[in-house]
Write a structure and sequence with these properties.
By secondary structure, the protein is of the alpha+beta class. Helix content is about 35%, strand content about 25%. Helix 7 packs across helix 9. The protein is elongated and about 65 Å long.
Length: about 270
């Protein structure tokens, strides 16, 4: 943060949040939230393949680790503004936390223009780096969460927390480029919503008949999980996919019943 905005002291960092980002970010800096995020950070891991760091991930539920690898085309509503925190392993290094601010859909074009203007000496590099990738229509994708973060390579798959320490998305990438001096910079970064990632996991679990995955998901049910199930149930009623009505002998019910017609255990006391 200090390097990005050329500030020298913590007081100047606080002033930066107040002036540039507004009060919506302050909740990410409160000690109560900082302590809670520190505990939640224990669920964030570095993904390694053959001993080499390739990204970040986090414990989704039970023994299942989530990192990037899902193609998501739709999403449930994400917060349009406010403060967020990302926890991950940028640059294949130690675990870090980056409090930053959501760049709303309406402000994305201005953020791009501002960055290009402040770094006009690298304009030719940006054009060469992005070509097909850097397109304004992608910036207008309302299903992505966008922000300005210092998390670049190695941090893909990191969880994104909202102002109340809820995981709302997964850090997925950004429009990065490298300056002639070897410094990595980015115009804007984005995350994919966790809700549709979970929906994709549930659907894949049903198709592959992974009852263990579904039961682990249901064990940790919360209000967000219920929203996901409600959305999925509506889609099933429209399409009626056969895989949801496969009978599970050990559960004495179908996948549809397991997901949507759960019977809560009775208290015998």
């Amino acid at each position: 943060m200090k390097d990005r905005h050329k500030v020298k002291s913590f007081a100047e960092v606080q002033q930066l949040f107040t002036v540039e980002y507004g009060k919506s970010v302050e909740t990410c800096l409160e000690m109560k939230r900082a302590k809670e995020l520190t505990v939640l950070g224990d669920s964030v891991c570095q993904v390694r393949v053959k001993g080499s760091a390739v990204g970040s991930g986090f414990l989704l539920f039970d023994r299942f680790i989530l990192t990037n690898g899902h193609v998501i085309k739709e999403s449930l509503p994400l917060p349009p503004q406010g403060g967020i925190c990302i926890i991950g392993h940028p640059g294949q290094g130690v675990k870090k936390i980056d409090p930053c601010c959501i760049i709303s859909l309406a402000d994305r074009k201005a953020a791009k223009t501002k960055h290009c203007k402040e770094n006009k000496e690298y304009m030719h590099i940006m054009i060469e780096s992005f070509q097909d990738k850097w397109a304004l229509q992608r910036l207008q994708d309302r299903h992505k969460l966008t922000y300005d973060s210092c998390f670049y390579h190695g941090s893909s798959g990191s969880p994104v927390f909202d102002e109340y320490c809820n995981v709302i998305a997964m850090h997925s990438g950004g429009y990065t480029y490298e300056t002639p001096k070897g410094k990595t910079q980015s115009i804007i970064e984005y995350a994919l919503p966790l809700s549709l990632t979970l929906e994709t996991i549930i659907h894949q679990a049903v198709v592959s008949q992974r009852v263990d995955v579904i039961k682990s998901f249901l064990t940790g049910m919360n209000s967000q999980c219920q929203q996901i199930l409600d959305r999925l149930k509506g889609q099933i009623h429209q399409g009626k996919p056969e895989e949801y009505f496969v009978y599970i002998e050990e559960e004495f019910c179908t996948f549809y019943d397991l997901l949507f017609n759960r019977v809560e255990p009775m208290d015998m006391e």
